[in-house]
TrEMBL record:
The lineage of its organism: Bacteria, Bacillati, Cyanobacteriota, Cyanophyceae, Oscillatoriophycideae. This is Transmembrane protein. Keywords: Membrane, Transmembrane, Transmembrane helix. It comes from the Bacteria. The chain crosses the membrane at residues 62-95, 101-122. The keyword Transmembrane helix applies. It comes from Rippkaea orientalis (strain PCC 8801 / RF-1).
Length: 138
């Protein structure tokens, strides 16, 4: 059951990542603020849906919580690196730089989804271990 749930939540994060990256493909540059606002709303919605799928399971230790927050920092760093990569390639290959926002949004959404998925999966594993210990003691 847990493997199926992890696959479903991973696919949910992938669907959101593709959806958010489509915003970056809209060729109207004057809509950047609106695109980013919609992306933030969709990312928050994705995080909420992932929490609902995992039933907002608790029980993570302090290292898991700290790792989760550092993964957020890493997600923003990797999104910036994806943006820079497409900008750099665009200097030599025409039209590639037009994909830089889509690449950054995809990377950000995917990494935030995966870190949230992993955070809840750790809590689920600890919950299952506690249940097994309680059943073995009874």
């Amino acid at each position: 059951m847990e493997v199926r749930q992890e696959r479903e939540t991973r696919n949910l994060a992938l669907d959101y990542a593709f959806g958010v990256s489509i915003l970056g493909l809209i060729p109207i540059s004057d809509l950047l603020t609106l695109k980013l606002l919609i992306a933030i709303i969709l990312i928050i919605k994705m995080l909420w849906h992932l929490g609902v799928k995992w039933k907002f399971v608790k029980g993570q230790d302090i290292l898991a919580i700290a790792g989760y927050w550092f993964s957020w920092l890493g997600a923003f760093g990797m999104a910036f690196m994806a943006w820079l990569t497409f900008l750099g390639i665009g200097l030599f290959v025409p039209y590639v730089s037009s994909f830089r926002l889509a690449a950054a949004l995809f990377t950000l959404t995917w990494m935030l989804g995966q870190s949230t998925n992993q955070f809840y999966a750790i809590g689920q594993q600890k919950l299952m271990m506690r249940k097994q210990l309680d059943e073995s003691e009874a």
